[in-house]
Batch of 4 targets.
Target 1
Amino acid sequence: MAYGFEAKNDSGKVIINDTIENLHFIGKATRGSNNSNYGDFPGYGGSNDTLDGRVLHTYTITCTGTPVAFIKPADYARWHSIIKQSVSSTTWTFEVMISGTSTSNPPEIYCFVNADDVPSTSDTHGMIVYKSNGSTKTFDSRRQPLAITGGGTAAAPPSDPTNSSGLPGNSSGHSWNYSSNDHDFRSSNRYTAHSDSSANTSTAMFACSSLAQGVYKRQQHGHKASCRFSCFGWCCGGYQDHYSTAAWWVMYRQAFRLRSGNFDSGWTGYAAGYSFSSVAEDGGWFGGGGGSWSSGSMPYAAKTINLQSNAYILADSSRYD
Amino acid sequence: MSHGLSVFKSDGSLGFSTADVTWQTVAQFTVAANATVSNTYSEAAGMTVIAQRQLVNVPPSAQEDYAPNVVVSNNSQTITVSPQSGLSSSQCIIHVLAQDA
């Protein structure tokens, strides 16, 4: 460089210069409403009813620039992810998903923006670096600069989000109105681990976007044929068919967990449903009456999408408290 | 420290120093649904560049929400965001971060 400013760290890597902006801490987002649900299948009470559950917390922060948000878990055993980030004027809203149904121990969201968009401060101590235009800041020590502790590439979670292996799929040959789920839709054991020495369960926080999504469904078909009219022990009046379909589905979103020495990329159920339909053919003059009834619905086809790797960054939250 | 740079806060505590490691931010931009965008940042030449994707407006219980692909090329200077092959893509925030390689 012929002029300007450049600082290299102890590894000889540039960490401040006058061409690329550093990220600076602007505050923690404010937590608003929450919504807890799906600890089990709505409207169903049989076997394998239990799900992981999830809580959605909404956070907001007002700033110019686009914030990079870090999640600092309060309960490191739970899975976390930011599943939505939107802006209205200069107010940013984050929807943060956490596994489980307890609304206690919500995480904190630490927000960082580029140097030139940090809020003004009356602090007269520190160091500011400007670009060659003399007005655009690339570094301003009065707002705590981001220092990372680890990170890398987070692989996609396993393509099967469910603890029971394999696609649950469809099965037939069940008795009419059969409805007993045989698939474990929880995802607590389904994750890809990344060894990272800076991961801990005390002050570590992470920035990583949730991309992968999935819908898994189990469907069971039942049937019964009833004799419309019996003649001395054999069916002489034809058969009346009865059909039933029971279905369980869960919609998953990618979520992350910090463990000591590991960053995990996994899943948490976002929504779930149970549907049941039953149809009885009209039995005619001598048979029983026909009819159908059903409950619940599934929003879209079963599949897993966005199974892609994504960058993750770890930092120490205690530097910004 | 025997050499390097330390920047202190007004309360006298250490704020940042050459013992630290960081990612710098090259750019942030939002890509509209189904759009292809290619931006070039000459200042990122030769650096390690990552592009984080954050979906903006996910309606998870109503429709599938495909994230766009991101490709870093041209000696880390060019970021290309485009829909996955044969699929629509959702609106997405892109954070381009760089680290001295």
Target 2
Amino acid sequence: MTINLKTIKHISKLSRISVDDKKAKKLEGDLNLIFEFIEKLNELDTDKIEPLTSIAETTLKFRTDEVKSKDIRNQILKNSPEKNEDFFVVPKVVE
Amino acid sequence: MSEITSQTLTELVKNIKQKKISSEETTKAFIERGDKSKILNSYITEDYSSALSKAKNFDNKPNFDFKLPGIPIAVKDLFCTNGVKTTAGSKILSNFVPTYESTVTQNIWNEGAILLGKLNCDEFAMGSSNETSFFGNVQSPIHKNLVPGGSSGGSASALAANLTPITIGTDTGGSIRQPASFTGTVGLKPTYGSCSRYGIVAFASSLDQAGPMSKDVKDCALLYEIISTYDEKDSTSIDFKRNKYSNELSNDIKGKKIGIPKEYRVDGMPKEIEDLWTKGIEYAKDCGAEIIEISLPHTNYALSAYYIVAPAEASSNLARYDGVKYGFRSKGENLIDMYEKTRSEGFGAEVQRRIMIGTYVLSSGYYDAYYLKAQKVRRLIKNDFDEVYKKVDAILTPSTPSSAFKIGEKTNDPISMYLNDIFTVPVNLAGLPAISIPAGVDAKGYPLGLQIIGKAFDEQNILDIAYAMEEKIAFKNKITDWWIK
């Protein structure tokens, strides 16, 4: 399978990472190399194999859902690139 | 008494407990050496003044019941430290100050340790040479312009250069063991679920594990015993009976069965690695172990499966960096444009490449062909290990297919960089513990490591084997302090 520039643009959109033509060209080359390497897996017949979805394979424990951190709103807001009173500010989304 | 900074953790703890040295003297010694070693670029953030005041506080009211009484320690900048900047080596987190502490670091502060600072690493732990860090390359103290390995490259460099007595790293595909091997130090990747992932910047959640890096096996056992705890804040943390690993450490490994997997004899492996492995087998025999030839038939597919699973999980984990609630933000014409520019400018090339791979293998129409396929191959790899562990207690392999390389040597070829992890990746896919110990040097004098892989939760066993072999190998790391004028 070959990944072309159109696919690169599509993945970049899904990833929310903007790529210009130069970067797309470079990614096209790199990704094709990497997928050639990855596709080695097709040599294996895995039809009857169960996928390994969790390495720990234990049942998840239950715990009470309670708030443990107190009054950290200001500390958290301090990390925000732009804030207004108690809110995070983003570019306008509603016209 | 030898110089403070060149002592092992065990020696430092003893000397502090016997009041031969104070925490302040110890902390000062590491800071002074750190100041002379800036060219290595091991640190991203130094927390020296706070470290000194904590050391003074410790000396005023010492508690010698602690396992790490007033011991200054620098940690990989992937662990969130409350109130101290945590970057994961990325521009996108370059101004992020956590409001909480990772469980693993909290465990070491609870035993009296003091934070010296945060150590450089590959961006989001994606790399094998510490060259993808937004904060620049790290130099290996072994030789000028040599990579320390990665992703825990700052940790390995700082440890080998005596800037910290021990350190903690994280290992997703070899990020503790490979840099340990490159710098002549000891590194343990614990069983998945042994150390809490809470508060560690996530890369690939089903593979990530924190682990100790140290100058010898005894220190490694002590640090592992402290950081491995059950934690309800990590839903994959496992509640199993943990040993007092350092107390129970034993060099008696007579009769242990050690497997030698033929598939690790890869094409083009340098003769030096082959010889090191043969020597390792002899050392194990000298210790009384029984050597058994084994086969792990799917080894050759591990790296391909890894480069589906890890990027897939990374693309999902890194979706949170959107420039809204924390971290770097770029200006955009609208919300989507802001997201796209923030992520394009905030992530480096390797991270973007992996997010793209991950997004693609999870995207509609490709999930079964790639992600599901990789999970099935992951099962086959785990089955290989389950099968051989019916016959052997542990497995011995080289840690890496080569010694450390020059800065810039492999940056243009992603595949040759990925091949660095060929011996370490299967362990992460199977969730097993493995330790790398220094075992010799190549013709250039660069360190080479041997890896001992254990059964799940059998850390004591591989620590014991490593301890016994360390004694036979008697490796001495030759650091010339070339960077100190």
Target 3
Amino acid sequence: MSLQRVLIRKKRTIQDPFSSQVKKTSLWKNTVRSKTLLFMCLPAIIFFIAFSYIPMPFSYIAFTKFNYIKGIFGSPFVGFKNFAFLFTSGQLTLLLRNTILFNLAFILLGNFFQITFAILLNEVQSRRFKKLTQSMMFLPYFISAVLVSLLVYNLINYDYGFISALVRSAGGTMPKLYSQASAWPFIIVAVNLWQTTGYGTIIYFAAITSIDESMIEAATVDGANGFQRIRYIMLPSLKPTVIILLLFAMGGIIRGNFGLFYNLVGNNSVLFKTTDIIETYVYRALMNNFNFSQGSAVGLFQSVVGFGIVLIANTVVRRIEPDYALF
Amino acid sequence: MAKKPESNNLRHLKLDWTDRTIRGFTYVFVTLFAVACIIPFWLIIASSFADEASIRRTGFALWPAVVSLRSYNLILNNPDLLIGSYIVTIAMTVIGTIIGLFVVSMTGYALQRKDFQLRNRISFFIYFTSLFTAGLVPFYYVMVKMYGLKDNYLAVLLPLLMNPWLIILMKNFVKAIPHEITESGKIDGAGDFTIFYKLILPSMTPALATIGLFIALGYWNEWYFSSLFLTTIVKYRPLQYHLYNIVNTVASLKNSIAASNIVVQDLPSETLKMATAVLATGPIIFAYPFVQKYFVAGLTVGAVKG
């Protein structure tokens, strides 16, 4: 999500000529005068209160030994005991490690592939080829995580998988991947790249097409060849976009893509060591083990630390390029 | 939106060997990756038409060794669950998209009006929810205990109506509409809501299409809130959650074709999963070529100098 947000923010710098004409009145008077506008925002405000703000105080569950029957305030208060348990048992460390390492791989490899394909697509002469391949690359973004997991199963399951069959017909032996934890970081990263490369390519491609054409022309006239045009013009022009997007991606580094992980791994506990991320742990704590307290503790830890990281990323962005800062 | 250049490839420039090398690589890599993106889809379709026994012998293949329509027959002979799922999904997609789109565009319009002084505070109030969340457990607790939405379709319909990103995106789309339209409405004595409804809405069809499609895609692909809030007592589940259950539990697989009299070993389980996937996902794949340009517009808005 943060990708688009950054790009959207760019527009903020364009001054609306009308804004200077607005007379400053008191907030109260202005609100009374524009009460219709306030009413128009009301459904959205109620929506976010109901589904985002009201749940917030219930994070108190994380500090209780929660009993569903007695309710939140009937459950005994235990302070930081739930957090202490998660730290000492090593559970939280494992979840953080997996979540962060997966995100790093997604961010770094993802951006590398997206930029590469954006530059390559820009070299394509045939409009029809470009349109067709772009559509093909964008397709995986449209399907649900449920279908993604079925596609993966179709390719690599031991008994009938397409790749398994290929490996066997080539005389090799196919490993039983669904019981081999060490293989899954590679599988999940590959699936993520498969699903997001086309989508990210579109954003970088848009950034490339907005490079001033006369700059490229001038360089070519001065004798720059194809590699040099990419090295000295395209990559430097993309640099600000890349840095900002990377920083914001870092802001979300302890948030995971639940749908992808849960559908690929599900309740296959053999794989948890290398695949369990914060979101999947919280979901299982809630839906399978009914352990509201620990699920809530992990979730609260993630929210608070994640919020801190976003603030840091935003501060760094504001130092580099104030226009891009989120707030 | 301003017309954007196709690309910076400068047809008229003279090519040397570096350009030809880059172009050669381009066509090879882009073709390979593009094909890799659609092969898995093809495999699902091909396998859904394959004979179960041939799959058990040789695995999924790009072309079915023995063609069989048995899975489709089984599903379509007892289409009750599939049709129910379709109705639930279509109803949610239509209702949710209309309501969501209306609220998002109304809010987006109000929040970009420069003469509305509360706009920054409200924007931040909305935006903050994407920076800090309560987490899943408190959300679940509130939905089930306070709102009593367990096993209620509203638990799926409501949370997908909107999100902060869509409101920001809409705000940005509306900014491109000249302020003079609002001004002219005001001079004619129209209220803010009338201006929005009569003047602004009709002039922003591309934005409505883009944001409407993002909301609709969310409903069509929905399985997450269903898995949280719809338990087994809900007979008709949204399509992708229906598929999720068929893929993951043998019991659902049997239910899906009312196969109480067939022993599990005789079920064409592999091809049934694939056929259900084709039937549940087909419409979005067919619609894809027609709608993808709106998604691209949504992703690049603000990225291209206009």
Target 4
Amino acid sequence: MTMATFMQQLTNGISLGSLYALIAIGYTMVYGILRLINFAHGDIVMMAAYFAFFGIAVFHIPWYITFLAVVLLTALLGIVVERTAYRTLRDAPRTSILISAIGVSFLLENLATYLFSGIPKAFPEFKFMTTPFSVGGVLIQPLVVVVPVVTILLLFVLLFIINKTRLGMAMRAVSKDYETARLMGIEINGVISATFGIGSGLAAVGALMWGMKYSSIQPLMGVMPGLKCFIAAVIGGIGNIKGAVLGGFILGLAEILLVAFLPSLTGYRDAIAFIILIIILLFRPMGILGEKQTDKV
Amino acid sequence: MKRILAASVAAVLAIGTLAGCGSKATNDTSGAGSADGDVIKIGIFEPLTGANAAGGQLEVEGMMLANEMRPEVLGKKVVLVQADNKSDKAEATTAAARLIEKEKVACILGSWGSSLSIAAGDLVKTNKVPAIGASCTNPLVTQGNDYYFRVCFIDTDQGRIVANYCADNFGAKKVAVIQEVSNDYSTGLVKIFSENFKAKGGEIIDGGSYQTNDTDFSGILANLKSSNPDAIFAPGNYTESAMIIKQARAQGITAPFIGCDTWETGPFIEVGGSDVEGAIMTTFFDDKNPVNDEGKKFVEAYNKKYPDKQGNIDSVAALGYDAYMLALDAIERAGSTDGTAVRDAIAATKDFQGATGAITINETGDADKDVAIIKTVKDGKFTFLDTVKMK
């Protein structure tokens, strides 16, 4: 393999990894606070992509307004899902809420199939993001640089919110023990709504990047990324935001580098994610950056 | 309040999941009687959702049009029953079983996508319900199955034609092949193409493989770029193929892309945009030059029923039309809807005038066709390029 090919593969891996990272953050935030794996997260990504498609391709709203509206709308969708499907089950056994999450996932998929048809739609093209430029024989799309930068920026914003603001403090308190947090006068419903809003907003950013990069959207587009980003969150240590980003990058790079070095195994690239998951669960179940947890009896 | 909310959410969820399943009858007489009652049911077995949905829906358009033009056989009304196989091999057997066991259809039409047809093959055979594929080209669909037929040519011919075209018209010496490993259609074509191209003295490079529903192909394409092929043969599902071409162009791969019949579907151009300009594919039918009167009749009726598609009729719609017409012709010749009798009638088809040309069913259950059409994408439209003789 030449140096140029290797560098090309490395940039491919990093850009795929940062997409995974953006979506994985949403999983990890919700898990951190509710101990819930939000299976509908991948489908929220899908809905965000459709919002953007309708804004730009159908209603011809300028892209910057659309993007902002998509993030807000998706955040709202996340909050609505939490209010209707999860909050009502707050005191129910955890399994019920998990099944409710799977139900929401199916609901969104079928709703999208019904409303938007199963035929793939072309995501609007952004030439300034996709026209490649050359750096030492490596062709790079501007998007490939933009995605990791946006991911890292958002990570810092999020860390700031969690560590330095009152809302963040409340989030941390709720994630430690929400009964006690409630006793201390924290309005936990508001905090949980905010968590879903932020997580879904990040998913929307992920969806916009995903749409620009892969240019095709369809109702089941969220399923595989959803699973992989969940795996990314587990690898990094579920509940830990830096871990989710790290897990995303590891997964993206592992997938692309597998293809690069062992081309005969390309058919198994989806399997690699699950193999990594199994290894992590066997040898370090709390994930790379996760902390050991002792369950309260 | 909470309880009401929870109940309504549960109800919405239930409706949501139910909406996804269930076969729907396209005519208003659904459920009225079975095959030997006052209507004759014909099953449409197609992907209406999922990765292959666009292809499936086009075939359904052709079948519905044919149903409008010929709504009766043996003095009974024909009812089309749709079953969505969801572009998924496991769902395909469920959908086919529903058509056979619950709807008791006289004949099954479809499916777009050879893998889906192959998945239903055993059910069709053991239950003795004849099936007619419209555009499933993989040889395995009809191989060893007396009850599966088709109205299109097969990949053994298609792969050979593309290989010859690459070598003769393109002067290509080195061709990279990319295959969709989870798709029997794609792997079959790549194998046939490679054998024929090597026989002509060409060199084949393994350009890697991918799975249905993959979105990121940057890895295999970066590897492929360094091998610098004259052309790239990448038969597969239209969405994935269009994305491959797009991502290849973004990585600076300029070699022409060559594919087969599945590419001739609207979303291929929608998703691929300007990047798929110049892509070349083999296909079944050219609406600008229908080969017979039935073809002209079809083009006229199709343009009337779907005026917004004027000037761009996909081949698979014509094949869907032919599959329906052939089924009715066979039922009429058999004089009953008995599975074995209809099967024998289909097998005995000779010079049946379909929209895509004369159809004679040979001993393997495939249609003997005399020509294949080669098209390219030009100015965002599938444009006729060449006609190739089969023999």
